[in-house]
Amino acid sequence: MAGVLVIGSMILDMVITVPRLPEPGENIHGSGFAMVAGGKGANQAVAAARLDQDVFLMGCVGRDTFGDLILDAVEPTGVDTSLVKRAPAASTGVALIAIEDGTGMNTIVVEPGANMALAVDDLEVLEPYYNRARTALFQLEIPLDVVAEGARRARERGLVTVLDAGPPHAAPLAFLAAFDVISPNQKELAALSGREVGGIKSAMAAAKELAGAGIKRIVVKMGADGALLVTDGNAVHVPPFEIDAVDSTGAGDAFTAGLAVALAEGAGDAEAVRFANAAGAAAVTVLGAIPSMPERSAVQRLLARGESM
Questions:
Q1: List of residues 6+ apart from 98 with CB closer than 8 A
Q2: Each residue of 3-35: b (16+ CB within 10 Å) or e?
Q3: Domains, the chain, ranges and CATH?
Q4: Between 269-283 and 296-305, two packed helices, what is the crossing angle to 10 degrees?
Q5: How many Å separate Cα 12 from the centre of its chain?
Q6: Residue 108: exposure state from Cβ atoms within 10 A (0-12, 13-18, ≥19)
Q7: Which neighbouring-strand residues pair with 238?
Q8: For labeling, which of 89, 91, 106, 281 is most exposed (least CB within 10 Å)?
């Protein structure tokens, strides 16, 4: 196996289904409340494990029941959680998620909690793990100095560094240049580029601008429109797979994990993005974040169909 090192967030998702997403100040009734393990780091670690990779997760939870719930959900998937820190003075991060019935669209509010207790000094324990992985996967839900230094060390030791650029940040180019691949969605791309993004044409323009500023590879998650691959200023649209969406929560995490797995296995850029598209598509067919992270067999079924919208 190629191996994936994930350094990122661990959050307990509190999920409720609503007939429609509420307007500001509006109170509507929902149904089907559930608490499920989530956070971009945990989601992507589980997804990579279900895609048949050895996965090592570094993150931070509190010494509380919510932290126990997350670890109890992640560990049975085969993810190595021995690098997870338990903060004595911070509570486990939580996310409040409303999911629109019928469309799968969602709104999410996050309180990061113990995720922000992860520190640069904690990276020292990673030294024995660099030769056990080929890609290192990061997100922006933990302190940025940890992300930047973690990426520097991983790249220095020969790993392909991948950044899921969420949640949106106006990160400096010097920070982004520490990664071999960055993968934002449209809102995140707008934050990174400072340009308005809404659709394939504007996303191509914004991604090309970042590429022109020295970012090697940019993979834009376009949701129902698939993905864009921009390398050396050249943009390719990779079409999506046709599926019946249930819940989009975690779909971007499945996509980025699929991208990291494919790159770890030596796939070319276009092949890796198509694999990522299939992973993201498979994820939206299941309710919840970690529960929706797809098995490799589900991704391979989509790839074997050879269909796109």
A1: 16, 17, 18, 21, 22, 30, 106, 107
A2: bbbbbbbbbbbbbebbeeeeeeeeeeeeeeeee
A3: 4-305 (3.40.1190.20)
A4: 110
A5: 15
A6: middle
A7: 227
A8: 89
Do residues 292 and 250 lie in contact, with contact meaning Cβ atoms separated by under 8 Å? yes
CA distances from 262 to 135, 139, 192, 288 (A): 10, 18, 25, 24
- Residue pair 12/35 in contact (Cβ under 8 Å)? The answer is yes
User: Would you tell me the crossing angle of helices 269-283 and 251-264 to the nearest 10 degrees?
Assistant: 150
CA dist., res. 201 & res. 118, Å (int): 38
The residues annotated with a catalytic role in the active site are 253
76/46 Cα distance (integer angstroms): 9
CB 267 within 8 A of CB 275: yes
pLDDT tens digits, 61-120 = 999 999 999 999 999 999 999 999 999 999 999 999 898 998 878 888 989 999 999 999
For residue 181, give the nearest of 284, 261, 299 by alpha carbon: 261
- Residue 15 contacts residue 288 (beta carbons within 8 Å): yes
Global pTM? 0.91
Q: Are 289 and 249 spatial neighbours (Cβ–Cβ below 8 Å)?
A: yes
- Unique residue bearing structure tokens 């691949």: 181
Classify residue 136 as left (phi > 0), alpha (psi -120 to 50) or beta.
beta
Question: For the chain, how long is the longest CA-to-CA vector?
Answer: 52
* pLDDT tens figures, 204-262: 999 998 888 888 899 999 988 999 999 987 899 999 898 877 777 789 999 999 999 99
Read off the tokens for 127: 């030294």
Q: Which parts of 101-159 are beta strand (E)?
A: 106-111, 135-138
b/e for 109-136, b at 16 or more Cβ within 10 A? ebebbbbbbbeeebbeebeebbeebbbb
